[in-house]
Amino acid sequence: MEIKLNKDNISDGVHFIKKKKYILYKKGNKFKICRNKCKHQGNKFIKSNNSHVITCPAHGWELDLQKMKYIKPHGIELHHELVESIIHKDMIIFSDNQIKPSTFSIKRKSVLKNKELTITHYAHATAEIKCGSFKIITDPWCEGPAFTTGWWLNQNPPEKWLNNIVNSNLIYISHSHSDHLNIHTLKKIKHLNPNIRIIVPSFKNTSCENMLDRIGLTNVHRTPFLVWQQINRDCRYMLLQDFTGKNDSGILIEYKGYTILNLVDSHNLNNGDLPKVDLLMGSFSGGSSGHPVCWENFNKDKMALILSKKKKATLNKIVRMISITEPEVFVPFAGYFSELHPADREILIRNKKNKPEQVVELIKNKFPAISVWSPIPGHTFDFSTFSIKHRSYKSDINHNFENYDQLYHNNPFYHQMGSLTSIQEYFDWANFKDDKLILHVIETDNSFVNRIREFYVNFKSGKVSQKCVIDERHHYLRIKVKSHIFRYVLSYGFGWEEISIGFQARLYRKPDIYNRGFWNHFQDMLPSMPLFKELYHI
């Protein structure tokens, strides 16, 4: 795609052009142009007080247009810049090298028989998608908590969920977060069908494969993005990557010309290059982060304001994805969890989320021709009739809080992780470097008040110490964390979002800038073999 502009009509500064689809920056005789899409979640930028800096209102990310580099948060890769191709006397022509021809090539629809193509909801992000005789299960979480003891299902899965999953043909794992790759659920599946076929996205790292291997599930297939995978003559699927910079994915399923797109948690799936689909499903609730509810940088009013913006950003994402894909049906999906553990009552009250009813109302107002299915476990959507089959539903859930608490308290390597020598070995093993970041860890009891131990990690030198000099040159990150949870996560080599997203810590940072490199590394880039090899198999 080429964009032609008259040079004489362009003044110095920031310009939003082509219905705000692009941003042009001019200084003297130099021009730069990029797509108006934040790398984080695909939201549009707005001007700031700085003449060459623009801001994403969703989360405050700032882009320096002179360098095409993010200055907030710290450590973000370059923003994609369009290449200047031709300069005439009075005309400048840019080439949009991000827009590529679609590779989807959807087939013509065939007539469906009754119950031939269906979706049955289980819980949270777990569904059974039946394409003829072939059954696909998405992100099985039907047992126990996620993010240590931070998340609990607020929907009771159908009684026969385990039998149905182990007898399915394929499991799709979208990413490594434990509400999608859930150890407790997958261990049950493994005991009954250890050879069940599982597909995972071909991320740069292998965190999903590593975790599945540790559970004992070995029939795992690393699947490339943007390539149709043919199941049979009538059915195929394609994995799509989220462009936010995090390891996230979605899946497009086609059966006899009918299309289902599961966005899962993605905010900018395939950079917005998506086909028209019949049914779209995606997360809706928000509140799936320890920020801001676990951060001591904010008072209650500021916290409420940030939460409100995040909830709105999630709803805006739904609107944006519906506008692109134009589905007949939208399914609010992957948002059915609550902070139900007694220790997290304060978080439960504080962490307000979007409700399915809000999504229904939003779509009714903005897209009156689109139907919304707010799924209940066991209920089935049938494409042949575009109707829902209702089944009886048992709402009571026994969460067994005490049993799972014991799992984390009884870590056999708890006391070994009590020495600073072991902590040094852990951070040597993790192998993360940052010239500015100082980490201050304070291990506490469940109250976050009574201290058990504290230490510092200087990521420039990699050294762990009991004292540290911190000045304005440094980025300071303090984590007050439940000691048993912290040592459990470290000894097993789990990602640290088990702590942060699981509300198991209280955090503070100065300056108040997202340390993206740190969180990305300690979630997705840790070595495949944990520090204590004896605990390799979970």
In short:
This protein has 538 residues and is α+β, with helices and mostly antiparallel strands. 21% of the residues lie in helices and 28% in strands.
Essential attributes:
single chain, 538 residues, alpha+beta, Rieske Iron-sulfur Protein, Metallo-beta-lactamase, Chain A, Nonspecific Lipid-transfer Protein, Chain A, 3 domains, eight-stranded mixed beta sheet, seven-stranded mixed beta sheet, 28% strand
Structure in words:
With 538 residues, this protein is α+β, with helices and mostly antiparallel strands. It folds into 3 domains: 2-95, 3-layer Sandwich (Rieske Iron-sulfur Protein), CATH 2.102.10.10; 117-402, Ribonuclease Z/Hydroxyacylglutathione hydrolase-like (Metallo-beta-lactamase, Chain A); 411-535, Nonspecific Lipid-transfer Protein, Chain A. 21% of the residues lie in helices and 28% in strands. The strands form 7 sheets. An 8-stranded mixed β-sheet has the order 17-16-15-13-12-11-26-27, covered by helices on one side. The chain has a 7-stranded mixed β-sheet with strand order 18-19-20-21-22-23-25, with helices on one face. The relative contact order is 0.11.
Mean pLDDT: 92
Span between termini:
51 Å
Number of strands: 32
What is the architecture of the largest domain at the second tier of CATH? 4-Layer Sandwich
> How can the largest sheet be summarized?
8 strands, mixed
Strand % is 25-35%
Q: What is the fourth-level CATH superfamily of the largest domain?
A: Ribonuclease Z/Hydroxyacylglutathione hydrolase-like
What is the helical fraction, as a range of percent? 10-25%
Low-confidence stretches: none
CATH class of the largest domain: Alpha Beta
Class computed from helices, strands and strand pairing: alpha+beta
State the strand order across the main sheet.
17-16-15-13-12-11-26-27
Count of spatially separate domains: 3
Which word captures the global form?
A: globular
Gyration radius from CA atoms, angstroms: 24 Å
SS element count, helices? 11
CATH topology of the largest domain: Metallo-beta-lactamase, Chain A
